[in-house]
Amino acid sequence: MMADQIQFFFEVLIGGLLSGVMYSLVALGFVLIYKTSGVLNFAQGSMVLFAALTFVQLREKGLPFAVAFLITLILMAVLGITVERTVMRPLLNRSPIVLFLATLGLSYIIEAGAQLIWGTQVHALDLGISDTPIQVGPVSISQFDISAALISGTLVAALVFFFQRTRTGLTFRAVADDPFAALAVGLRLSRIWALVWITAGLIALVAGLLWGARLGVQFSLSLIVLKAFPVLVLGGFDSILGTIVGGLIIGATEKLAEVFVGPLFGGGIETWFAYVVALVFLLIRPTGLFGQKVVERV
């Protein structure tokens, strides 16, 4: 009996960790833009929805997977550049609340554009990944969860390598650390910020496909970004490593809480338990596990 309970515990834990990797992917889009421009991009969820809707519509029109992916990626790059040049660049020196409200408005505009172009019906998205469970030792794990976690983890690891080891990535970090100093040494901030928004579009596309395959491509898909906020609170709004750790913690704790604590509350606590964890972190460590502390000179 004890062995069965331990096996069940690990099945729940592993399922939560795999979901946490997907949460990290969504949160990564926020971190990239926040690190380089100080903007909390609330439109990231709408970008996820727009990417998923565009891809699934192209697939339903008979285009091969690779062609639909490439066209969607190009459209997301165009969207990212357009947002950066027409909205974010003119508001560059405004206060953070103005920038946040601008991305909030963008969120509704992008969703409305998606509705006008593609309609409002729900679409099923098949990525060709089976959702049947497989046995890993004594533990049963969904094939889709494993595949989605591998895809998400690979993209996150590639971006970590890009930021840590490539010249362009180091340029991004220099802009994040001190944009005025970066500008003084001749770095083209507008080009860097455009590349960041393009990268955010790529992340939105991959996240949209994975979450769309799991939940269906529908307008509530944009709300998946709400799961990114507890991840950001735990890991830190400016830490890529923090998104990984924070995503794993949130994914694991919410699944374990739903299964082992949820029955005491009648179930359904998975939808809000992550925010309880995030609130506790805000009270104890507002900058998150890996976020940089703000030092103000007076």
Quick overview of this protein structure:
This protein is mainly alpha-helical and 298 residues long.
Characterize the structure shown.
The chain has one domain (2-284): ABC transporter involved in vitamin B12 uptake, BtuC (Orthogonal Bundle). A hairpin with a 2-residue loop joins strand 1 and strand 2. Helices cover 71% and strands 3% of the residues. Helix 1 packs across helix 6 (167-177), helix 2 crosses helix 8 (189-215) and helix 5 runs antiparallel to helix 8. It is globular. It has helices at residues 2-37, 44-60, 65-88, 96-118, 143-165, 167-177, 179-184, 189-215, 228-235, 240-261, 270-284, and strands spanning 133-136, 139-142. A two-stranded antiparallel sheet has the order 1-2. The protein starts with a helix and ends in a 14-residue tail after the last helix. The chain is mainly α. The longest helix has 36 residues, at 2-37.
Order of helices and strands: HHHHEEHHHHHHH
How many discrete structural domains? Answer: 1
Instruction: Extract low-pLDDT stretches.
Output: none
Main sheet overview: 2 strands, antiparallel
* Number of H- or I-type helical stretches: 11
Considering the chains and any ligands shown, give keywords for the structure.
mainly alpha; two-stranded antiparallel ribbon; ABC transporter involved in vitamin B12 uptake, BtuC; 11 helices; globular; 71% helix; 298 residues
Topology, element by element:
Layout: H1 2-37, H2 44-60, H3 65-88, H4 96-118, E1 133-136, E2 139-142, H5 143-165, H6 167-177, H7 179-184, H8 189-215, H9 228-235, H10 240-261, H11 270-284
Antiparallel strand pairs: 1-2
Helix pairs in contact: 1-5, 1-6, 1-8, 1-9, 1-10, 2-3, 2-4, 2-8, 3-8, 5-6, 5-8, 9-10, 9-11, 10-11
